[in-house]
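Notebook entry, cofactor series.
This is the third protein in the set we're modelling with a bound small molecule. For this one the ligand is flavin-adenine dinucleotide. I'm keeping the input format identical across the series so the outputs can be compared line by line later. Sequence and SMILES below, as received.
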Amino acid sequence: MDFSLDDEQLMYRRAVRDFCEKELKPYAAEVDRSGELRWAAIRKMPGLGLTGLQVPEAYGGAGLDSVSAAIALEEIGRVCGSTGLSIAAHNGLCCFPIMQWGTEAQKQRYLPLLTGGEVLGGLALTEPGAGSDLGGIRTTARRDGDSWVINGHKAWITNPRYAPVIVTLVRTDPGAGKHGYSMILVDTDAEGLTIHPPEKKMGVRGSPTQMLTFSNVRVPGENLLGEEGRGFHQTMQTLDGGRIGIGALTVGLAQGALEAAIRYAKERQAFGQSISQFQAIQWMIADGAMMIEAARLMVYRAAWRKDQGLSFTKEAAMGKLLASETAEKVAFNAIQIHGSYGYSQEFPVERIYRDQRLMSIGEGTSEIQRLVIARRVLREYDS
Ligand SMILES: Cc1cc2nc3c(=O)[nH]c(=O)nc-3n(C[C@H](O)[C@H](O)[C@H](O)COP(=O)(O)OP(=O)(O)OC[C@H]3O[C@@H](n4cnc5c(N)ncnc54)[C@H](O)[C@@H]3O)c2cc1C
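Returned structure with ligand:
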């Protein structure tokens, strides 16, 4: 059993960390305040493969293994949750399904554009009336000659305002249950598509989250992504990988909170000494360091299993669930360690606390992760 990262992975982590420290960290508070990602930084991301982490080099990506991709998202999350969420969604939810199920023509058309650092892609599953229960989605696509005509609403979608294309889950055969869903590539300049203003959110405010309305949106028949009727299955597979990305981002958020707390604890004086000398503070730091290490190992292991071609659904759900519970605890304690200053927007822990709160909800709530895990664990004990 070898838990060490290889030299390339270590070098990659150093390079991404340097980039994040210089290009993202100093601007993270402004990204949160303004509700705008820092495009000056995103435009430089292709140099490190961040806009095409696992996209093959032939299409402009970095062709990285899943552990390296997790490392990259962790490093971004360590300094800026908003950027981390948009980059995780772009890679895991938009580039991945196109890579996995796209025809050669679809890959040629979209992947070089998506990896170029000028745009970010999205995936639209959730609707106003259905999130966890995708069986409840109502958006339909019907064939009309050589086209699909799409009608419905999508809600809480990451990146539409920056996206040239959105992978959209629709019902193509409403009577066919799970076999009646398909994924369709919708160009965001399509007539009849309305992208609503960004939601006003508690956290990850720099990452745009928007509602979409499809009113007789006509797209070419060739925009079907993968097989007709396989959309539900494709979605589940996409979310499995996406959860490794969100888990990694969340480990990064927790790590950022812990580091801020340690810095502060060493500087702050009370009762004639640094508060880092108090056992109560040390226990919070010890617990945080331990939980982060556990969550990181679990997320990396899910990524490693993915690279080995092993099943990783349960492991990805466990990693995301543990990382989100860790980040909640660590960010809570980081504010505690800062006292009143932790409650101020002047210190990053206030933002991290708000940002991390999403991670128990997006890409499957914690309840859904437990459901996914329990189903698999129970199955393992079937005789
Ligand atoms: C900032 C942000 C970004 C997002 N980005 C995207 C995106 O890019 N694309 C996209 O498609 N969606 C996106 N979402 C939507 C997100 O994935 C959903 O909100 C999430 O899956 C939960 O769905 P819901 O909000 O409809 O909650 P519901 O499904 O209505 O759940 C409400 C509550 O009921 C619980 N619950 C539901 N079913 C069960 C069950 N079977 N057992 C136990 N408890 C259950 C849930 O856990 C939750 O606590 C985003 C959301 C946010 C906030």
